[in-house]
Structures are given as structure tokens and as C-alpha cells.
Amino acid sequence: MAGFCTAMLRLTSLLALVAALALPALHAAQPKSMADLPDSNPDAEKAGFIVPEGFEINLWASDPMLRKPVQINFDAQGRLWVVSSTTYPHIKPGEEAKDEVVVLEDTNHDGTADKSTVFAHDLHIPTGVIAGDGGVYVANSTEVIFLRDTDGDLKEDKRDIILSGFGTEDTHHLLHTMRFGPEGLLYFLQSIYIHSHIETPHGVRRLLGGGVWEFRPETRQLEIISKGLINPWGFEFDRWGQSFASDGAGSEGVNFIFPGSVFATSPGAKRIVHGMSPGQPKHASQDIVDDPSFPADWQGHFIQCDFRGGRVNRFSLAPSGSSYIAKQEADVLASTHPAFRPISVQIGPDGALYIADWYNPIIQHGEVDFRDPRRDLVHGRIWR
What we know:
By secondary structure, the chain is mainly beta. It has helices at residues 13-21, 42-47, and strands at residues 49-50, 59-62, 69-74, 80-84, 99-105, 115-123, 126-132, 135-140, 143-148, 158-164, 176-180, 186-190, 195-200, 203-208, 211-216, 221-227, 232-237, 243-247, 255-257, 261-262, 284-288, 302-306, 311-320, 323-335, 342-347, 353-357, 381-383.
């Protein structure tokens, strides 16, 4: 982290104000034709970044080391696990499952990844990954699978289906966003159009629509702790064990998740909890600043990806009754490059913030055809 907080790109206070208040207009629109596609060189993308004063940004990893990252998570050894999908938004007739789990490493600790290993390679639109319990959990469309390396070569040798029966009605609503809680349980989310019917040793569990799952690996006990939201793609715990979620389709900012909470769109809900910052951007991913490498006035702040606007947002929280109010602060990062799509963030073991860049001039598949030729299926970056 020695270089992360050394000022390389310094901005005036006026530019910082612009970054905080006027960035929605800075991100270029989707290209209208193949001739309008932006320069895909990482240097061209980096040139479009607006970075807060006192911070610097560098390219940590890029294609061909990885392509189309979906979620990132560090393991206890400081390696970055990535699920990637070049199949998304759908598998074409006759295609074989080809998506990957990739492990990235900075072996010489110079702030740039220099080693990329494909751990698993025959997955079908994987949307969540996290290392733990002697292996790695992956959300693989309808299943949660557990992959293990038994001979130490960082390659999958054994695969077990832990849970199955999750819905596939929409591929950007699939089971996703894996996190371990402070008590060691595994959490993952699904979105509004997904209908899941899971048979477990403790009975069938059903979730029709969005929500948050809680899984105890040693007993295979699966429970629903929260229902609703539209497309929740961020989930994290604060230092007190409270959990929060971001929503990629709702416009209520940060959401306070607690056992039994019910949010908008949950079928049959009589009462719902609202988000803590209504009218805010739609978000993917989430992390909470709790590292001395960041400024004191950033501590406890939420970092979320505005994938549509090409920005990484920041929120502070203040108590309000039994909940909180979230206030949007100056951005962590913004870009004028139309293909910058921040989709997953995590503070690494070195104290730097890592940003998975889906890199695509097309936002997702709600706006354009599945086979639109403008859709990028090749690139992907990790910025630090």
C-alpha cells in the first residue's frame, strides 16, 4: 500500500467538487455502432479516470490474464480469486460450458499481478466465488459447488455439488455475491426473477424473488435471512456484524439487512423496509472501509460500484432511529471512458482497493440484444 496513498494524480478542490456532484454527465454514452467502439487499450481507459487528491491508481491485471470478471475475493494467502464469464448473457446452441475460476497473484509484491492460474475452466456463467474450508465455493448458475485442489498445483481436482435447484430465469439475476459472515457462515444473494427450490437435509427451502441466503457448510443448513430487493449485487458486514446490501436495479442506495427483513418486490409482502438513501444510483458490489491505509474521514464508509455511470461511489452512515441514513460522499473513482464497468470491489491485504472492471460498452442485456455485435467478450481488468 506504500504507493497507493502517494499522490500521483492530484486534483484541485474544484475538480473534486465536480467529481462529487456532476459525474453522471461525464461517463460517455453507449456506442451506437461498431465504428463508435472506444479504444480498448488499458492506457486509454486509465487516461479517462478521475481520482481523488492524494490517491493513485494502477492497472493490477488485464486480459489475457483474465477476461470478463464477475466477482473477486482474496484468500488468506493474499491471492485474488476471480470468476469470469465470456458466455454471459447466454450460452449459444451447441456451445460447451467454458467459463473459469482464475487465481491472480502478485508474487514480487510490486503492486501488479504477475501470475495467472486457471483453477477451473468448464463452468456455466459463474457469478460468485470465495475461498474457504479448504477449497473454494462457486455460484455456478443453478448450483453452489465446492472445488478442491488435492495435490497443491492450484488446479481443481475434486468437485462437489453442495446445493442445487436455484432458478435461472434471468442470467444477470442468478445466484451471486458470496461472502463469509463474522460467525463463519456463508452468504449469497439472488435477484427478483429467480425462483429457487432447494432440497436440503433440513427440508426444502424456497425463495421466489430476490433475497439473501445463509448457509452453514458443516450441517448443510440453508436459510433465508432477508427477502426482496430487485437485483442485489453487493453484500458486506461492518465491524459490528451488521449486514448491508446494494441493489443494481433499485434506486434506494444502501440497504440495511437484518434477519426477517423484507424489501420491495418480495411476493406477498405486507410491509417493507426502504433503503437508506432513496434516489441514489443503482449499484453492484460493496465493501466497507476499515483499514488504516485510508484517510480517517473515510473509515466506516461504504464503497459501491455505479456500473452504469462508470463510477465507484462512497457513502457515509449516520444513526436514524433503529436504522441509519446514508449520505453520498465524493466519489472514489470516476471515468469518462464508455467501457469502464466497475462490478466488484474489495480492499486487499495490502490496504489498497481492488476494482474488477467488467469492461464493456454494453451495460448488460436489459438494454440491447443478447448477440449485439458491440458486446465485448474478450476484455477485463483489475484496477488497484
